Amino acid sequence: MSEKEQSTPPQGIFAAGTWQEATQTPPAMGIPVIPETPQEESPPFLAPEDREVAFPGAFRVNGPANQDNNVQQEIPQAPIDALVTHSIEDCDEEVTNMLNLRSPAQPNQRSRKYWRQRLLHLLSLEINVVLLAVIMALLIFVAVSEGGNTSNSSNSNNSQSINQQNGALQVPATAGVAKLPTRAPASFLDSLNLSESTLSAMEREQSPQSKAYKWLTSNLNNQSSTQQDLPNWRLVQRFGLATFYYSTGGDYWVRHRGWLDWDTNECRWEQLFIDSSDASCNNKGEIKALEFSRANNMDGTIPPEVSLLSRSLQSFHVNRQLELKGTIPTEVGLLSRLTMLILSGTALSGTLPTEIGQLQDLQTVRVYWTGLHGCIPSELGTLGNLSRIGVAEADLTGSVPDEVFQLPSLRSLELLECSGLNTEFTLQEATIQSKYLKQLFLSGRTVGAEMAIPSEIGTLTELKHLTLNDWRNSGTILSEFGRLTKLASLDLRENSIVGTLPHELFELTYLSNLQLGSNQLEGLPPPGIFSALTRLNILQLNDNHFSGKIPTEVGLLSSLVRLELQNTDLFGTLPTELLQLENLTRLVVTNTSLSGSIPEELCDKMYRKDFKCFGNHDPPCRWIPVKTNTTVCHGTSLCGCDCRPCPKPVD
After folding, report:
1. Around 302, how many Cα atoms within 13 Å sit in the side-chain half-sphere?
2. Average pLDDT of 429-449?
3. Per-residue DSSP letters for 458-483?
4. Burial of 20 by CB count in 10 Å (0-12 exposed, 13-18 middle, 19+ buried)?
5. Alpha carbon of 549 to those of 199, 372, 598: distances in Å?
6. pTM value > 0.90
7. Which pLDDT score, from 0 to 100, does residue 111 have?
8. Phi/psi of residue 259, each to 5°?
9. CB-neighbour burial class of residue 642 (10 A; exposed 0-12, middle 13-18, buried 19+)
10. Ramachandran region of residue 640, left (φ > 0), alpha (ψ -120 to 50) or beta?
């Protein structure tokens, strides 16, 4: 090759390098080679007029500064946008020249092998550009699709995706089935307005709260469900009921028909559906009564989520659920509309929560036969509408707060078998401060000294029921009882009351139940005073020191059903006037000095008739008399009826 040819650079788009370099084997297809650039060389990116781009790899440029010494520069690969903007026309021109196997400036100077390699490189470049464009288009499409899905999820009524941010509970939604109010999926959980304790409990997969939430969301995503367009308060109501169901072992309840059936209105779930009517719901479908008064094999605890029914719940009654344990949740104080709280016959423990004092509409609170301990909270004294307080067989201590006796609406106070409760002055305080009491039930006082019934008892003129059973009372039955003209029931059993029965007691015309057994009373009522007690059903005078004959005026007690005279010093015969007592079903005269025979007619009156069936109802069922132990007379000299047979008369 001549010197002129070596010194004169070729023209055209391949003029960037020398002939020797141009004939070298190019780099691998599609993989640019970036040679190291000395530090002293000029910057890699030159002005457009000072450079010509060759093929991918090391860019070779001849600038004005190194034309004299013929020094060649190599710069790194240009940015990708420079490749993308490479002129398609230039590529077409190069391809044409390559196909013609010549260069415009130097024809026939390059071999066929060289041009084949250069053609492959150009094709590689175009393929890379096309692939890059396709990848960028896919990325843009994915980004636009995700943005569209996010927008649709916030505006569509036909999609739901519930995902708790902490990742503990994730419930994916099925698109196009949940007909919820317009809201973003993340806001659905917020719309339930659940407490932090509930959200925390939902993190435990097997917790009642987690199970209830999964039940709720899975049914909302069930396309075949008929209960989809539910208002938010219905969702909260169902979640609260479902949590109660799972927390108390609902799958093992004796009666749980319809529970958690999504397509059945919750007002018609068994035990919420009472007597063929939606008595547990108001006309809007809001739960107003949660009552389990029959044994139902509940096993578990009362969940705090019962407070989610605060929108409408007025009555919460759980009775005879012996395996229901745990404590009364403090969240019960959030049931702002609650008027009745009854928890009896359970294994509940702990104390009565002071939060009960927040229930300003509460009228009745009764806690019977539980393991509760502690004191009666004084906060009860702040409930202006509270009219009935009942505590029975609980390990309560302390005394009844004075605030309780000062309640203006208090009508009934029950303290039964509370052995640890200091009730020594309860009766006195009640008679002095609670002037409007209608029911006073006090029994089982085991601490404190014996004390007489205070004379202030006569000031409780509204009283209808008075029980001082086993209350360590002494003294006598005061004549002040005659002022209780509305009294229907008087129970003074198992005390140490002495003296005789005042005649004022037999002037209480509304009295239907008189129980004076197990005292130290003596004497008998004077003749003629029974005539006013026409409503009396039960007369118990047993285990006292009564002596004498049974007054014949007992036949005037026309409503009498039970007459108990056992363990007394009565003697003589049974008066034939007993035959006038059409309703008498039980006569107890055990361990008395009574003698003689019982009239056969009296025995027939006291036979109970039961409905009996035989075999397969052939012959048909019929009424037959069944003799029962209606007359208890062992330890006496009586004969006939259920007593010993009477001797046959001597001819």
Report:
1. 24
2. 85
3. GG-TT--EEEEETS-EESB--GGGGG
4. exposed
5. 74, 49, 15
6. no
7. 65
8. -65, 135
9. middle
10. left
